Amino acid sequence: MKTYAFEGTDKYYLDPELRAIVNMALAMEKPLILTGEAGTGKTQLAFEVARALGMRLEVLRCKSTIKGEEACYTQDTVLRLNDARFGSGKTGRNVENFYDYVIWGPIGRAFRADEKVVLLLDEIDKTESDVQDNLLDILDECQFTIREVNETIKAAIRPAIFITSNAKRELSDPFLRRCYCHHIAFPSPDDMRRIVNLHYPDTNPKLLKAATDIFYELRGRGFEKPPATSELLNWIGALEIADRIPEPEDPPLIGVLLKRAGDIQRFRKGDAGRRPYY
After folding, report:
1. To 10 degrees, the CA torsion angle through 148, 149, 154, 159?
2. Does 277 have pLDDT greater than 80?
């Protein structure tokens, strides 16, 4: 069996604990559930694993209305009915062939791949519990049944499965039991500087320190949506373009960090006499 080792990338800082569990999940072929607040890199991790290891990435964006079957396949019944009534012409489709009208979902494509791929189930906590249980069986066995023709699609090569959750809905114990789990804590100031240096290796050290200090001060104010890593990276990029080193008393371009109207209003009221810039 081929072994895989993910050591981070030029755009993704990987701390030792996360490195260990990612590589163990890859070695043991176990799904890895990633939790943590927005901006901690849960989703981006799967993208970077795929990029670093040269694997194709399949992404299922979970939502409350999704069904487990849809993640595997759907049948284009409208097209099939249209072909039955008017003919399929020169399309090569045969109305008697069910598979000519199958649209494979992310799980279906991952299971049918002839090489190892990364399969990301993003924000699984948005789905209903019965959908999670359905997906659990599918992921555990790496197979699903196409009920219309009673045929089973089984993965010849198990995908590397990453699952993210924002903990809006608790996952079931059986689901958790069959996965590895890791909570990505929000980066410390030192780790954050390492992350920023990956994206802006030539950043002025004074700008980096001032921006990071202000960023963490704002996060401590209890805003409805505190700024996350992506906001800090965008802010530093904007500050570089503006050629400004931010001052704590009057941080410029504050609208890059704060996104909710209520948070911006709170910032204004809490900083009377200052002039926030957006």
Report:
1. -40
2. no
